[in-house]
Amino acid sequence: MKIISLYISGLKMSLRNIRMTFLIYSINLILALLVIFPLLSFLKAGFGNSMLPDAMLKGFDFTSFTEFLRSVKGMSNNIVQARWMILFYFVVSIFFAGGMLFVFAKSEKFSIKTFLNGCVHYFFRFFKLFFYMLIFNLLDTLVVYLPLSLIINGVSDSVASEASLFYIVLFGVLIHLVLFIILQMIAYYTKIRIVSEDSRKVFRSIFKSIKFVFKNFISTFSLFLLQLVVPILLIVVILFLNNTIGMTSAITILIMFILQQMFVFSRVFVRMWIYASQFILYSEHNR
Amino acid sequence: MRKILRTICLLVGASIGISAFSFAQVDIFPKPNSERITNYNISVKLDADKKLLDGDMLLSWRNPSADLVNELQFHLYLNAFKNTKSTFMQESGGSHRGFELDESKKEEWGYVDVVSMKVVGGEELTNKIAFIHPDDNNENDQTVISVKLDKPVKPNEEIQLEIKFVSKLPKIFARTGYSDKYFLVGQWFPKLGVYEPQGQRYAAKGQWNCHQFHANSEFYANFSVYNVSITLPNQFVVGSGGLLQSEKDNGDGTKTLNYRAEDIVDFAWTASPKFKIAESQWKHVKIKVLLQPEHFSQADRHINSAKAALAYFEEHLGEYPYPYLTIVDPPYRGMGSAGMEYTTFITAGCFWGMPNGIRLTEMVTIHEFGHAYFMGILASNEFEEPWLDEGFNTYFETRIMDYAYGEKSSLVDFLGFKIGDGENTRNGYVAMGNPKIAENFRYSWDYKHGGYGSLSYMKTGTWMSTLDNLVGRETMDEIMKTYYSRWKFKHPCATDFIAVVNEVVMKNHGTKFGMNMNWYFDQVLYGSNTCDYSVASIDNRKVYPDRGLADVNGEKVMLKDSVSKNKSYKSKVIITRLGEVCVPVDVLIRFENGDEIRESWDGKARSIDFSYERPEKILWAKVDPDNKILIDINQMNNSLTTKPKSSTAWKLAMKFLFVLQNMMQTFSIFS
After folding, report:
1. CA nearest B424: which of B358, B338, B506?
2. Prediction ipTM score
3. Chosen from A21, A56, A66, A269 to mutate, greatest number of chain B CBs within 10 A
4. Which residue of B has its CA nearest to A125?
5. Which CATH class is domain B1-267?
6. Which CATH number fits domain B395-524: 1.25.10, 1.10.390, 1.10.60, 1.20.950?
């Protein structure tokens, strides 16, 4: 019950700062459009005045798609641009995380100034944290998949069927998922701790967060799981809408574009909501 | 007297030999379908632990030619797995479809030894066995032997041989062998080559046609009767290319199963203690599927696709004559034996949990079953003309798949992605890095720079579909039915098929396509050029009345608007031939008011234009509007419109935008 009320409090806090969601969403959209507009020109030029691509409007058309891919050169440039943009946005997200938490910590209504102050103030600490967490995540991957690959190599000559191998791999993936969630929780609470206490000692904050997460494991873990519900629902809804409406005409393309943007906006909001709920949880435990 | 005694000895010897191998036989067919030049009576014992086969064979062969034959040639295919020096290992690099042999393990290698060979009641031949290497002079290859005979076999005379052999099965990585207690026993016994009499296929004189075991091909054999007696431990479930005649418990933990097969070109069998059996009946054919327990839920996928193939082949080619069909589902560690064909016995392949929308099992089952016709009944030479086997079969596979599961979704219909088998086949050819790398008409081992699979399977499948579209389905079916009825249980070659095409096309279409269809085969079969037609341009020019000055009665006067004030356009479409292959094509031109004009072009010139003067502009033009010319390697340039729609570009861009935004947002959780 306490977790649910925390979750609702997080929602309220996020709603109070909905402008922050708009800001982050807008930047996400603008950066993505920087990749998409050249892609659109590329597609238009690639299609030229051929009528074959019209078949792709109705749905996935293997022949049209493969013919198009063969006839155009340079599609990989767009993919490379997209990769760089994902990387850039990742850095931007590290930058924004400080601002987001700073706004929550100040308990103020969102203002660009407060937000940017937080962004700048915590950027390097959060960047450092990212590198530490990257190492932890790599170690976690090694810890799970190295033994897993050894097990698979060892048993692949004796297991009866591919089903057995699938279950072995699934078991490893589930363990990795649990460890990944724990590491994510540690990363979140470390950031919250750094902002709440304006701590400059990132490594020390990580260990304190580990202690916090495990000391309050039921609360932290159940809150994290609860936070997965809305994104999963959102995915189900957008898949349903995509299948129902489709993108087969100018008007349905427009409708789906709007719905897709609402989905992305919701994802940005949910991320903020996660931070807000965890921030409240952390604050309550450290009152 | 001496001659009589010798004949008596021969007959007694033969009868002793035959009785040693024979068991109560029931004929499958009331009368032979084929010449049955070779007959095999084989008694084999499987040592499941040592992966050894201990075999006794009584072989009879009738000389089908007018020649005195003083040599026999046999395939010893398991020797391909003896060491890395074999031609097969050299060509395949020790891997096949991604599976490999562990070369460090002695037990994983395979071989076949002829322990003894003698003419029944006659000469001992064991010492006369010599390895030969007719294809590549690889002296280390031991997959073909020659046996010289002191006494030549006269025309139409039958010779009987007693052969003892031991076969060690390799660990499965290519086609045959074992994986744990699963055995796929193919190419396991000394098999006689084909003696081609003068005039058979390309034989200028009587000659043995007995190729080495290659990475890409293995089939060319006489139609035979097989009586095979298999002894193995009781717990094994067995399937084979023959019909079970009897089964006996030997009381020593083993059992003996007796099989008979008639009019087939090869005999393979399988055994595993884990097989679960699913059976079904289709008309006269009993379908038996031997499945891995974890795949048993997919039994219907095998059965239904086999039934779809049986029905389609019966309607469009000819009846499947055999009363049984055995389908084997290999375990995942025996997948190197998946997708194989032995006329009445095929291996398919599936994976646990494979979604129904991914129809690989159906595709493989239909494809391998199709080999009962192309290679099995129409027993062409896979070594020398692989396209006649794999390509024709691919063509029918796509027809059946597209008919049974939908043209645009027959291969994949999963999560919104749809791929047709026909589309996939065409793509396999047109997406080649270099589709001109070799011509189709080439020995299977002679694709030295690659392209065997894409050309033998995919290109042939594509040009067969194009031929189908050109001459029409009715004519194409008549071609295939005529080819089948004329050449079933024989050994056809390219010229035999082309002769049928020429005959039927001439009968149905007269000289519409010329005096014959050789021009088509010269390009697609014997040539390596590509086909590419393109709509190069559309030009719409407004027709204006004459303007300026005119001399009228010695005076310069302004021209009056003598032409109707109605708008008029001189429009022109230019079609170009970018490839070297020429085929007749249609061009469809649509005007802005919806009127359409269809033009026909023989496709020979480098370019052609179609001009019109009409009140409407040309809106678009399509070359090959019905998508008949599937060998056209670029369909993007087959159409041109003056009013392109940008909706598709927007749709793809918006989809990409959504994916990109979500990826950006997803990766941000690490930030």
Report:
1. B358
2. 0.95
3. A66
4. B671
5. mainly beta
6. 1.10.390
